[in-house]
Amino acid sequence: MTIPQDLRYTKEHEWISVDGDVATVGITAFAAEALGDVVFVELPEAGSEVSAGTPCGEIESTKSVSEIYAPVDGEVTEVNQAVVDNPESVNSDPYEQGWLFKVRFESMPELMDAAAYTALTQEG
């Protein structure tokens, strides 16, 4: 499983791509594989405020329901309606088409790089 080197990661298995003051958020391939077939995605509404480390949505699979945690404090600027309409894209393309939402943030917390995230996924 390839872990993109240019992203940042959380211990909740979310990835973050930063462009200026906007973070694009998704779940990692590791998380998508652990979840199994994703059948439903609930995302925060555009314009809503999210707080780092708190749940802001859900992903439901054939195996379980998992919360989506906000990786940063900020305002949701956009949600990926294509993922809501076609949740399986979280499994098939978690780093591109399967992104979840974008957040305008004021400060970026310390997040894991690809090497640290790889180590996390290899812990027993």
TrEMBL record:
Keywords associated with the record: Lipoyl
InterPro entries cross-referenced by the UniProt entry: 2-oxoA_DH_lipoyl-BS, Biotin_lipoyl, GCV_H, GCV_H/Fam206, GCV_H_sub, Single_hybrid_motif
Keyword Cell membrane attached: no
An annotated GO BP: glycine decarboxylation via glycine cleavage system
Cofactor(s), names only, from the UniProt record: (R)-lipoate
Domain Lipoyl-binding residues, every copy: 22-104
One Pfam assignment: GCV_H
Domain of life: Bacteria
Modified residues (N6-lipoyllysine): K63
This protein's GO CC annotations: cytosol; glycine cleavage complex
Cofactor note: Binds 1 lipoyl cofactor covalently.
Function: The glycine cleavage system catalyzes the degradation of glycine. The H protein shuttles the methylamine group of glycine from the P protein to the T protein.
Record's subunit section: The glycine cleavage system is composed of four proteins: P, T, L and H.
Family: Belongs to the GcvH family.
Protein name (record): Glycine cleavage system H protein
Taxonomic source organism: Prauserella rugosa
Lineage: Bacteria, Bacillati, Actinomycetota, Actinomycetes, Pseudonocardiales
Gene that encodes the chain: gcvH
